[in-house]
Design a protein that fits this description.
With 352 residues, the chain is an all-beta fold. It contains one helix and 28 strands. Helices cover 3% and strands 56% of the residues.
Length: 352
């Protein structure tokens, strides 16, 4: 018969395990685990340590009872996971006998997984793998973690307001309603909150594109619990499906051949539009409408020469007289194609 004795901390029943005690504070967590036969001659003793706070160090004492038909002998303990050290009161367990393993572990706080397990292998010298394993299972409390380090989203060019969700893991006693959200970069004015949707927690955020011709938004979002001070950060990127891009985003001007002007080189790329898709559906030929490119530095027009490279890509040379170079730090490109005009800004640097 399996029994559970509840003390100050929470304990949970797993398989054929008798949880004989859980101690709080600096006292070790004490559990019983029966070593039972498994598939292929491999045997496992399992114990559930209950809920343990992320990042904390705990001591564990496992009383392993040999329920096999043979004596278990081993030469050393092999550890995995977040176990710092372990020692046993002997190196063999007779049939029906017991042995105590004392171990120290640090509860991981870098993973979003709530259910964790670590293993202590009863290793014999000269053997490639241990046939007996003591497995400790536990659930991580005080978790506040994103599932990934980065998140990328794609939006239509007309969407100036972006609303998205990012999965997060939050475990007790953290209150999801109290979690704060802050941002940096293009996400510095983002609004966000934790929502529960499809049986899981998400960070739902909303961010505005301040410049309607901006091709992407980049920055970070941070969630923080005001009580435990736990927090996590994710890098976010929102790319807009724009019909025209000008690269690179930062241009460096050079002295032109007349030594009285400055020139820059950029590459304009046209992407498929609704018009080109309709043309393809009608003609079954992937044709890209030609582009006419103009440019201004501040209010001053630049002399532009366009060189088609194929596949909707153009190399563009733009020249501006030297007397205008101090009046602006960006070039505004006007790209006309398929009867529409698109505007793209790029920063420019001039020699000093």
């Amino acid at each position: 018969m399996v029994s559970v004795r509840r003390l100050g901390c929470n304990g949970f029943l797993l398989g054929l395990i008798s949880l004989v005690g859980v101690a709080c504070g600096n006292d070790p967590i004490r559990v019983d685990a029966d070593l039972l036969p498994g598939i292929g001659g491999y045997s496992t003793a399992e114990a559930d340590l209950g809920w343990l706070p992320a990042g904390k160090k705990v001591d564990v004492e496992v009383r392993v009872v040999n329920r096999l038909s043979d004596v278990v002998q081993f030469d050393r303990l092999k550890l995995d996971g977040s176990l710092n050290k372990a020692e046993a009161t002997g190196n063999s367990i007779p049939v029906g006998g017991e042995l105590t393993i004392r171990a120290a572990l640090t509860i991981p706080n870098y993973s979003h997984e709530v259910d964790q397990s670590i293993a202590i292998y009863l290793q014999r010298d000269g053997k490639r793998s241990a046939r007996e394993t003591v497995r400790l299972r536990f659930q991580v409390s005080e978790l506040l973690r994103f599932h990934t380090k980065t998140a990328q989203f794609s939006r239509d060019s007309s969407d100036n307001q972006c609303v998205e969700r990012i999965p997060v893991t939050i475990t007790k006693p953290i209150d999801a309603a109290k979690v704060s959200v802050t941002g940096t970069g293009d996400f510095r004015n983002a609004r966000g909150a934790i929502v529960h949707w499809q049986d899981r927690d998400w960070l739902q955020f909303e961010v505005d594109r301040e410049d309607p011709i901006q091709a992407e938004l980049a920055g970070t979002l941070t969630i923080e619990d005001p009580v435990s001070k736990r927090k996590d950060m994710i890098t976010c990127l929102v790319r807009y499906r724009v019909p025209v891009t000008v690269r690179p985003g930062l241009l460096f001007a050079r002295l032109a051949s007349d030594e009285k002007s400055y020139a820059v080189t950029a590459f304009v790329r046209l992407y498929p539009t609704e018009e080109s898709a309709a043309r393809f559906a009608e003609t079954k030929t992937a044709t890209q409408a030609p582009a006419v490119v103009a440019a201004h530095l501040g209010e001053h027009p630049m002399d532009v020469t366009t060189h088609p490279l194929g596949a909707g890509v153009y190399r563009v040379e733009a020249v501006v007289p030297e007397r205008f170079v101090e009046e602006a730090e960006s070039i505004q490109w006007q790209v006309k194609t398929d009867g529409k005009v698109y505007y793209v800004n790029t920063r420019v640097g001039f020699p000093r």
